[in-house]
Every structure is written in C-alpha cells, then in structure tokens.
Amino acid sequence: MRVTADDVAEAAGVSRAMVSRAFTEGAPIAARKRAHVLAVAESLGYRPNRIARGLTGSHTGLIALVVGAVSRPYEAWLLETMSREIRAARNWPLLLQVQPGDELDNALEDALAYQVDGAIVAAGSVSPALAERCRNSGAPIVMVGRIMPGGDTDAVCCDNRLGLELLVDHLASSGRKKLAWIGGTPETFSNIERHDGLMQALARRGMKLLAARQGDYSVDSGLAQALTLLTAPEKPDAILCGNDAMALGAIAAARRLGLSVPGDVAIAGFDDIPAAAWEPYQLTTVRNPVLETTREALRLLRQRIDGHGETGSAEIVRLAPELVIRQSA
What positions does the domain HTH lacI-type occupy (predicted)? Predict the structure, then answer.
C-alpha cells in the first residue's frame, strides 16, 4: 500500500501542511523540523507526488521531452544528452516519442495533463494555437533543431547552412569537382536548410551538383542511395549526406562496390555522432553541438518557467557548427 503524506504527518506528529512545506524548497519551516519530517518520510519510504503538487499550483519538476525515432543514432544521442542534463538540473524528463505522421499536438496535450513545467520539442512541429495554449497554461515550449514559422516560439538550432558551406569548401579545396548529395526527409527543417546551404555554397564557387538522391536519415537509405550514385554512368568523386547515419551507409556502399574511401570517393556527413569517430568509419562531418544545444534549451525553458520574459519576444539561438576532418574526406 502506498505511503501518503497523511501517514508521514501522523508518524512525525505534525500537520499535513508541515509535510508539504518540508518537501518544498524555500518554504518557511525550521531546519530541525524539516530534517525530522524528511527522516520520518525516508523511514516510511514516502515520496511526494509531483503531479499532485502541480495541481496545487507548485512546479512539478517534470519536463516533457518530445523526440523522434530513438533507434536512429542522432536521436538516441540527443535523448541521452537531454535526459542527463534535465536530471542534472534536478528535474525529471517525461518522454514522448513521436513517429513521422504522429499527431504531435495530441502528445503535448497529454503532457499538459501531467502538469509538466514545460516541454523541449526535438521532433515534429507544434501548431501556433497549441504553442500559445502551452504558454498560457504556464508550460512553455522550446523547439530544438527547428524554428517555427514566424519565429514566435523559443528555439535552439545549429546553423545548418554554414555547416554545408564548410563541407563544400573543404571538398572543393581538396580537388573534388563532382559532388553528389543524399538528402533526408524533404519536408524536415534540417533537410531544407542543409540543402539550401549546399546549393548556395556551390553557387558561390561556380560549381553545380552532379546528382541528388533522397534518403530518410537512416543508414539503410544512405546505403541504397549511394549504391545508385556509385553505379551511375558518371560517378561522383564526393558524396555529401544530410546526416551521419546516411553517410555511414554510403561508406558501406562504396566498400561493397570495391571502391576506396576517400581515394575513389570522399564521403561526408553532418552531426558528428559518436559512431562517426569509430575506426571503421573515421567520418568527416560537421559537428552539431548537442550538449550546447541541450543547455541552451534548458536555459530558455527555465527562463520562461521562472517568469522572466513572459511577455517578451521569442529568443532564437543559432549555434555555430564545426568542421571535423577525418579520413573519409
């Protein structure tokens, strides 16, 4: 049977309100009394109900964390980093996983029912109406990896266009002239920006793209699309991929065809996931600063939760990418 606050109050010889104050940071209660109540609660195995605290108007400490397919390397890395940093900030992540085609608004509506203090959204797009409802309910939203149309929601995002410019400059200066592109899901924010950055960087150098293929950010799609590119009558001497997972697939495709990397074809990705540095790949890529992204997202969220900038305009943080040169390009 679950131990309640009433049980603690009876065992400690105090009121139920005193138990609540003992578990509320900053609440008026003598240090000796707080220590006594906490010791009794510990002996009984009592833990406060965070959701119930939220119903009384206090913060629950719950942060909704909306992510995509966690089976993919980047999403898994982002989830691990965000969960760790949320816990380090003495909060608790409430995981909401959404797949392509899922209704993100429905997931966030469910999160609001759990009295979350706020939400970090790293997958999908939030409707303007729901973003406004979250703000009005005191549960602000911070977008990660994408910026809402109109820019009226706090967001943290890597400078995707600059990242592709760094890659194109590196490949072109290395003598690569026939560049091919494997993009991700067409409608995603990162794919649009990275493709734009690629085309702008090529135009500045007076270069044209040899070929373009569409993957879905998975290793398998990178493998399939690279096989098509590398068996075409005119083969690229460099393949740029919209993320690292597809680049790892492209390396596998080159090896399957007996091609050397980077001798016959240079291959580059985007994100710098941990596997990019593994010995079998040694992938040249653009570092998408996950830790800095997470900390900036939490800073923006805490700022809103604490009431700073409640009526202020949204803050959009663009983090600088970094070119990481390894053996693949």
Answer: 3-57
The mean-pLDDT minimum among 48-62, 87-101, 145-159, 212-226 falls in 48-62
Domain identity same for 123 and 182: no
Which amino acid does the sequence have at 230? Answer: L
Same structural domain for residues 17 and 134? no
Q: How, if at all, do strands 266-268 and 238-241 pair?
A: parallel
Q: Give the number of other CB atoms < 10 A from CB of residue 89.
A: 15
pTM of the model: 0.78
The answer on 249 and 178 residing in a single domain is yes
Quote the Cα angle for 313-316-320, to 5°: 160
- Cα(163)–Cα(249) distance, rounded to whole angstroms? 20
Helix axes 160-173, 189-204, angle to 10 degrees: 40
Strand order in the sheet with 179-183: 211-214, 179-183, 238-241, 266-268
Interior CA angle at 157 toward 239 and 190, to 5°?
Answer: 35
Q: Residue 211 has which token pair?
A: 């070929």
Q: Say yes or no: 186 and 263 in one domain.
A: yes
Q: What percent of the chain has pLDDT over 90?
A: 52
For residues 300 and 154, is the Cβ–Cβ distance under 8 A? yes
Q: How many domains does the chain contain in total?
A: 3
CA–CA distance, 195 with 166 (Å, rounded to integer): 13
Cβ atoms < 10 Å from Cβ of 109: 13
Instruction: Give the pLDDT confidence score for residue 56 in this predicted structure.
Output: 46
Q: Is residue 190 in a domain?
A: yes
Same domain (yes/no): 165, 279: yes
| Pair of tokens at residue 77 | 């890395």
Residues 91 and 31 in one domain: no
